[in-house]
Amino acid sequence: MTRRTCQAIIVAAGQGTRMKSDQPKVLHQIAGLSMIGHVTKAASEAGVDLISVVVGPDMEAVQRAATAIHPAVNAHIQTDRLGTAHAVLAARADLIDPKDDVLVLFGDTPLLTSDTLKSVRDSIAEGHDVVVLGFRSDVPDPYGRLIEQDGKLVAIREAKDCTPEEFAISFCNAGIMGFSGKHVLELLDAIDDDNAQKEYYLTDAVEKALAKGLGATAVEADEDELQGVNNRQHLANVEAAFQRRARDAAMTAGATLVAPETVYFAYDTKLGRDVLIEPNVIFAPGVTIADHVTIRAFSYVESTKVADGCVIGPYARLRPGTVLEEGAKVGNFVEIKKARIEKGAKVNHLSYIGDARVGEKANIGAGTITCNYDGFDKFKTDIGKGAFIGSNTALVAPATIGDGAIIGAGSTITDPVEADDLAFTRARPTVKSGWAASFRQKKAAKKKH
Ligand code: UD1
Ligand code: CA
Fold first, then answer.
1. What is the tally of structural domains in the chain?
2. In terms of pTM, does the model score above 0.85?
3. Taking the chain, what is the end-to-end CA distance rounded to the nearest angstrom?
4. Kind and range of the H or E element at 76?
């Protein structure tokens, strides 16, 4: 059997007025990735050969967001927004020589999985010319309804065009449809705008197919996966559904989440086995955590790579470019940015380490600051293997601390320190014997008068 070819058309030209936003709806993010990014990713994982994105004028950013996910993206502009079928036809040039399976996706349905798309493709392969993705909902209000007769799909009716009986139906149109490439253009071209909103409805493809003696069917999937986003409340609902899915996947893969509902994942967070995550931990995009890592409460981790056996937090902030090697420890109120903390090194308390390397088994004392920025440029700090940095030290970058060197507490280090040397800067304390006691006596005497 030869492989069936496939293309996806993602329509995303709507501004999404109900979002009340200055940016196009599909650029709003779920788990750190734009909605258009999620949909493009699902299409890409379903094995498409070509993705067409239909955007409105001045929506280059939407096109860029899709291209960042999949290399073969053709963008098309829909100037007048005359409905979902009209939007798909903006990609007509990509339908002249269609692939075997044509998937139409909406940019505002971001939780769609590639498995569901594959089931739509399977249904096309079985001979259905139009395949509609549906779901059951207790609150079907805004969605188009799937109308069946004798268990067979006969039409999709927009909520605004429904009779009261049709409006009571709980089987909803997710918006996502599959077409056999052979018939897609003739079906789309047959659609008119004879309805309540005077729009070209993609949903009319079902009735057009039946009128031509072609087959249409519905494939059912989970409501959680097919929720569309039209306003900020929907955006929050979809984010919540994403998080439920991600927490569940993390636990299934062998991570312990002490309070799963308080841990937030990004779309691309990768966790190993026997990872322990305490409550209130947030992952921004770009994080990979190896096995046997503990992340204590209230930590925020972004674009960071963590090796086996590290311990992070509580209250740690790991910013982009952080690499923790095996067994490294980062404790409370520590911020790390663009720095490699090598094997077994410790940064346990109240420190800022930026643009730096901390050598194997080095110990960074409480309150150590790498002074990496002079207001114009950033400079590097290099701390050698086994070095010991005393508490409350300012390392003024560019700074080099050799292997095994010791820096005395409270120092401001501006010169390179060689391996195994001791360096400190320190004003000698002035001690006045008994001064405090006589000061208190004087003050007390004054108060009595
Ligand atoms: C659509 C479906 C509805 C379904 C629901 C699922 C139609 C007619 N209705 O309704 O049956 O239950 O999605 O979420 O298909 N778009 C364009 N250009 C246009 C119009 C729309 O690009 O001219 C894009 C939008 O950017 C959006 C998608 O198409 O990504 C869906 O449009 P929207 O207006 O949100 O459709 P719904 O009213 O939600
Ligand atoms: Ca919608």
1. 2
2. yes
3. 106
4. strand 73-77
Which of 249-252's residues contact partners 24+ apart within 8 Å by CB, and which partners? 250/275, 250/277
DSSP letters of 251-282? HHTTEEESSGGG-B--TT-EE-TTEEE-SS-E
The confidence score (pLDDT) of residue 447 equals 87
For residue 237, the 8-state DSSP code is: H
Residue that is last in its domain, among 211, 226, 241: 226
Please check whether residue 334 lies inside any domain of the structure.
Answer: yes
Q: Which residue minimizes the CA distance to atom 10 of ligand 1?
A: 143
Query: Which atom of ligand 1 lies nearest, measured to the CA of 12?
Result: 26
State how far the Cα of 445 lies from the Cα of 449, in Å rounded to an integer.
Answer: 7
Please indicate, yes or no, whether residues 33 and 84 belong to a single structural domain of this protein.
Answer: yes
Q: Tell me, using a 6 A CB cutoff, whether residue 407 lines ligand 1.
A: no
- The reply to whether 435 falls in a domain is no
Residue located nearest, by CA, to atom 31 of ligand 1: 106
CATH number for the domain spanning 90: value is 3.90.550.10
* Cα–Cα distance measured from residue 127 to residue 279, given in angstroms and rounded to the nearest whole number: 50
Let me know whether 291 and 250 are in one domain: yes
Confirm whether 349 is a catalytic residue.
Answer: yes
Ligand index nearest the alpha carbon of residue 195: 1
Ligand nearest to the CA of 226: 1
Most confident of 12-26, 137-151, 315-329: 315-329
d(CA 253, CA 216): 38
Residues 216 and 289 in one domain: no
Residue whose CB lies within 8 A of the most ligand 1 atoms, among 103, 106, 136, 176, for a mutation test: 106
Cβ pair 383, 401 in contact under 8 A = yes
- pLDDT tens for each residue of 148-189: 999 899 999 999 999 999 999 999 999 999 999 999 999 999
Q: Establish whether residue 81 lines the binding site of ligand 1, counting it when its CB lies within 6 angstroms of any ligand atom.
A: yes
Q: Do the domain assignments include residue 444? A: no
Rounded Cα distance between 199 and 369, Å, is: 61
Q: Which domain holds residue 251?
A: 232-423
Answer yes or no: is the C-beta of 219 below 6 A from any ligand 1 atom.
Answer: no
Query: Do 362 and 274 belong to one domain?
Result: yes
**Per-residue pLDDT band at 303 (split at 50, 70, 90):** very high
Does the residue 168 lie in any domain?
yes
* Closest residue by CA, ligand 1 atom 2: 175
